[in-house]
Amino acid sequence: MAAPESGDGNNGAARMVTLISSDNTRFEVEAAAASLSQTLQLTILDGGGGGGDGIPLPNVDSATLSKVLEYCIKHAPAAANGGAPNATAVDRAELERFDNEFVNIDQSVLYSLIMAAHNLEIEGLQSLVAKKVADMIKGKSPMEIRRTLGFPDPTPEEQAEMNAHMLEYGWAYE
Amino acid sequence: MFKSEQPELGEAKRLHGAVREVALDDGDYTEVVPGSQQPLSRRRSATNKQDLLSLLPDCVLGEIVTRLPTRDAVHLQLVSSRYRNAWRASPLNLDVDYRDAARVLVYRRCHPGPTRRLRLERLTTSYYGDFDHWLLFSPALAGLQVLELQLQTLDNVSRRPLPPPALRFAATLVVLKIGSFTFPSPPAAAKTKPLRFPRLELLSFRCVDISEAALHGLLAGFPALETLVLDECVGFARVRITSATIRSVAVSSAGLQSDQATAILPRQVTIEDAPRLETVVPFRHPSCSDQCRRSLDLRIVSAPKLRVLGGACRPRPCASWSLAPRYSK
């Protein structure tokens, strides 16, 4: 069972592992792709997830997991090359295009994705979603940020606090 | 490829939809709860409605905040005190132009550091002295990864000496962009100890005055350099590039010397050994004369991976820099 980690297994014999989402859906995926998750990497290196066993992921539902795996599969070949040293500019541009498209999603999906990336410790995905949220905030006023993120209107205390802050530092916000 | 046994991918998409209906509660959701005249959304916003960021753990929030330009991070901290704490706890991403110079002091007062990125654009000479001092002494800048300094000039000719403290970040810098400065010449700087930038990936000099010896000394100290931009630089006639890591080089003909504003100096660029080099862009400016265009002599000795070799014409001579996303961590 504990086949050696095949870095760039594009042949049919690439090792597969099974992941089980919180709602009991089974996903079979190449070990190299699943290993982008720091959380799963050790288990997979130990030979887990193969055969009929599967690795349960109680924090990730099937919809989110399928999205996460879409990312992992796309990024696994580049990661197998140890980051990017051998990737060509074309490959990198294609990944970038995929990434942009990938996070063009609804806020609730984005939220599940952030949590899954965090729980599974997928570094590239973590920074991708963090950047997406940062982009949603950029160039907006505090009130617009509140509306964009679905934040409730400020309570009187919060409003007072904001006003006090603005009184002291308001000139710095122009 | 992976297979999902059930549900199918289409099913998964529908599941996303279902999640959205429950979690995303925007203003025009007007379901009315039986026995209550008040729309559900109103009640939720008064009680337990939560925004996207409030649900996230602190460390994730910090990751997001540190990616924001200073101005947006400051706006975000006005939204709630939790964000303010997140901002204070994450490395500062400081992005200001000359009008903001005074603001830096406010940000500094609100934020204890460290700073990950410092971009000072359109510095004027009057503020210049303060920043010099600040760059030299601020412990909050230790570990700086991205440094961008652009002096405000009208003519692309006048320059100022680079503040020596700018080089104190050599050990940690990943991106260094400098515009309209004079680089310290070797007798002053490099004789004692050659500068080394072990992590630097991108170097961009625009209208920089640097001697040939200083430039070569500098290029020898970049074990990780991937991108090199030399735009309208003066002070040297030849550049030799030998790098195991470099991927792209963009180089223009020489800029104008302040003392001989009409002279056009020939420039020879030799790429001696660059096993990873993919792109070389020798570029010129729209205003450039034919003589100026011909004044760039590019020689490539060994670059086996070279794919793109072509000229580019910049739309505007003073186009501002932008930071590639991958560096804006």
Automatic annotation (TrEMBL), chain A:
Question: What are the protein's UniProt keywords?
Answer: Ubl conjugation pathway
User: Matching Pfam families, A to Z?
Assistant: Skp1, Skp1_POZ
Q: How does it assemble?
A: Part of a SCF (SKP1-cullin-F-box) protein ligase complex.
In terms of SMART domains, this protein maps to:
Skp1
The text of the family note is:
Belongs to the SKP1 family.
Q: In which pathway does it act?
A: Protein modification; protein ubiquitination
Q: Which residues form the SKP1 component POZ domain?
A: 16-75
Disulfide bond listed as a keyword:
no
Record's keyword annotation contains Signal = no
Q: Where's the SKP1 component dimerisation domain?
A: 124-163
- What is one Gene Ontology biological process annotated in the Swiss-Prot or TrEMBL record? ubiquitin-dependent protein catabolic process
Protein task:
Involved in ubiquitination and subsequent proteasomal degradation of target proteins. Together with CUL1, RBX1 and a F-box protein, it forms a SCF E3 ubiquitin ligase complex. The functional specificity of this complex depends on the type of F-box protein. In the SCF complex, it serves as an adapter that links the F-box protein to CUL1.
InterPro entries in alphabetical order: SKP1, SKP1-like, SKP1-like_dim_sf, SKP1/BTB/POZ_sf, Skp1_comp_dimer, Skp1_comp_POZ
> What's this protein's name?
SKP1-like protein
On the tree of life, the source organism's domain of life is Eukaryota
UniProtKB/TrEMBL annotation, chain B:
Gene3D superfamilies from the UniProt entry: Ribonuclease Inhibitor (3.80.10.10)
Identify the residues that the record assigns to the F-box domain, covering every copy.
50-101
Q: Fetch the SMART domains from UniProt.
A: FBOX
Task: Supply the PROSITE patterns for this chain.
Answer: FBOX
SUPFAM superfamilies in the record: F-box domain, RNI-like
Q: Which InterPro entries match?
A: F-box-like_dom_sf, F-box_dom, F-box_dom-containing, LRR_dom_sf, LRR_FXL15/At3g58940/PEG3-like
Q: What is this protein called?
A: F-box domain-containing protein
* Organism of this sequence: Eleusine coracana subsp. coracana
Gene of origin? gb06849
